Amino acid sequence: MWIYYDSKTGNVERFMEKLRVLRDWNLQKIGPDLQVNHPGHLVTFTTRIGEIPESTVQFLSTHAGNIMTVSSSGNRNWGQNFARAADLVSLKYQIPVSLKFELSGTKKDVNNFIEILEQIHDC
Ligand SMILES: Cc1cc2nc3c(=O)[nH]c(=O)nc-3n(C[C@H](O)[C@H](O)[C@H](O)COP(=O)(O)O)c2cc1C
Fold first, then answer.
1. Is the pLDDT at 123 greater than 90, yes or no?
2. Which runs of E-coded beta strand occur in 18-120?
3. pLDDT exceeds 90 at position 86
């Protein structure tokens, strides 16, 4: 399983640390030099009042074709803009949403994420 993730203040990074304990998946942080040679799943965060981070926009401009699902971290304090980046990416690129979660996610969020992805991959 290949996961491509974006994180600015560390919450998505911490979600990945929890995931790393449970599954031996390839967790790759998005950056200008990241090579994408495998289809995988994107996990990002929501910024600037319901927007997709610029770093994620850049990543998708090259690699959207390899992305099977999108998930977003957010904060419920933002009301209807909660984790909206996932909806925007989904609409723009026709990619299904896997999960929206708060901050670095609970153990339940991480387990849900695993279950959703393993169902998609039939494992
Ligand atoms: C300037 C700013 C704007 C934000 N806007 C939203 C938002 O519109 N919707 C939302 O759900 N969360 C919003 N958040 C919360 C972040 O998405 C949340 O803290 C997320 O976990 C950050 O991920 P990261 O720590 O991996 O960068 C915002 C945070 C900041 C600092």
1. no
2. 26-29, 40-45, 67-74, 97-102
3. yes
122 C-alpha to ligand 1 centroid (Å):
32
Q: Which amino acid is at 115?
A: E
CB 72 within 8 A of CB 44: yes
Q: Which domains are delineated in the chain?
A: 2-120 (3.40.50.360)
Q: Which atom of ligand 1 is nearest to the CA of 104?
A: 21
The encoded tokens of residue 88 equal 């925007």
**Distance from residue 79's CA to the centre of ligand 1 (Å):** 12
CB under 8 Å to 97, separation ≥6 — which residues? 69, 70, 71, 72, 86, 87, 90
CA–CA gap between residue 106 and residue 111 (Å, rounded): 9
- pTM of the complete model: 0.98
